Amino acid sequence: MPVNYARRLTAPGRSSDANAHLGYMLAFVAGAINAGGFLAVQRYTSHMTGVVSAMADDLVLGAHALVLTGLGMLLAFMAGAACTAIMVNFGRRRALHSIYALPLMLEALLLLCFGLLGGRLAPAGALPISATVMLLSFIMGLQNALITKLSHAEIRTTHITGIVTDIGIELGKMMYWNRTAPAPVQGNRQRLAVLSMLASCFFVGGIAGAFGFSHLGYVATVPLALALMTLAITPLLDDAKSIATKKQ
């Protein structure tokens, strides 16, 4: 990944193009974790709508242990989002280059630990399924809050319900008849292209994640972690150089 490209995707100064490109990558990662992680822990961890609905079902059916698991997932997702908010505001207060790279690096490190240690610890019972689910939920909350903050809530990557809804809205605008309308209704083709690409990246990431987990197990997350790490390392090094220069 070229250094200038990586720096542009994580720079404090944002552009719609940079937001979209970062969104594509993170949507792929989210799709891979969600679909692949399901094969490992039998739970989807990227969207909380299904988690809350499952909690309601489990409560009615008397599966109280599963209700607690769902509550843990919900709290872990919220904790991940809160962690991103803390790191982003920390970076803004100190005018760091790595405002958005910090959460990305944390996500990469957590994924790396999950990929390298999960397969070894799970068979021995040292890594309960519930703990794995919480970790993945935390990672997804971390990522979703990051893309939400840097794009001002225009892009989401960990679930596609909103994306598909917005695609439908744009298609509806494009199909609207404007024969007598004083203000023509027009679809935003550029936005439609971005939304379609986000949904496609999530789907392709799901295929890659499911394939990787079914053939490689936990270690399938290591390439995802390394990709995020490569993306985040440039602004972190920029900050390290700035700090070293100030101390001289």
From TrEMBL:
TM helices/strands, residue ranges: 21-41, 61-88, 100-119, 125-147, 192-211, 217-237
InterPro entries per UniProt: DUF1275
Pfam families: DUF1275
Domain of life: Bacteria
UniProt entry keywords in alphabetical sequence: Membrane, Transmembrane, Transmembrane helix
PANTHER family in the cross-refs: SLR0142 PROTEIN, UPF0700 TRANSMEMBRANE PROTEIN YOAK
Official protein name in the record: DUF1275 domain-containing protein
